[in-house]
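The following record pairs a protein chain with its ligand, zinc ion.
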Amino acid sequence: MIPLPKRLPILDEISKSNQIIKYGFTGHVINNYELGLLSKYFHMQGHKDKTIYNMIIDFCKNEDEYFNPVIYQNMINKSIRKSKMYKLKSGTMNIPVYVSEIEKIKKLPHKLYRILFTMIVLARLQKFSTARIKEIKRKSHAYYLNMDFNFVLYFAGFSHPTEKESNRIKYELDGIRGFIETNLFSDKSFKLNFADDKGKHFMVITDINNITSFIQYFCVECGKEIVKSKKHDFCIECYKTYLNKIKLESKKRLVKNGES
Ligand SMILES: [Zn+2]
């Protein structure tokens, strides 16, 4: 089993910020990441730089009575400057998945379908939230997901994948089927080749912490919408046909073996 790294990527930064404000920094130690969230949060509320600075100093003093603002001055100022460039990721952000994307992946084995579905939602969340507040024109419509593949599997509902399984799935999606493309220089960055954000929405994900609960499954044979079965990836009719085929094949095999 792959041990999950201690800190999962935070998908819902607004809830995380509220949590910090209520309970303080993790371990009550000031850290860059959480300081950045606070700055963005205060900025989002419409406060001016000077006010944000004072709010942060007050917050830190409250956390640690020996807090020395002089030591952290640069770190705080830097986080305030950066807070103006990026939006906070929100767990209740509406993330669409497009019909054209679902069409490309819906007949895949459910396990692979679930992973790709999760990947496109995460990639879109990253794209939305890392968009600079001052819109810059993007040359490319490409979608990338920057995340450790084991985290991807975690968000797709695999609780304890083995290293071997994780690598096999990655190879199948990348090398064999070409739905994703691993970055040559980083194994934590994937280009999603099936992404296609034009046309109609298939659905809108409204709770980023429960992506898998939104997934609509299809029969891998006929493509009909189905309720997910634990046993197989077919609709009832196709499953019957499949079972009959297997029965017939094993009968044929028996006959063949009897002849020889
Ligand atoms: Zn079917």
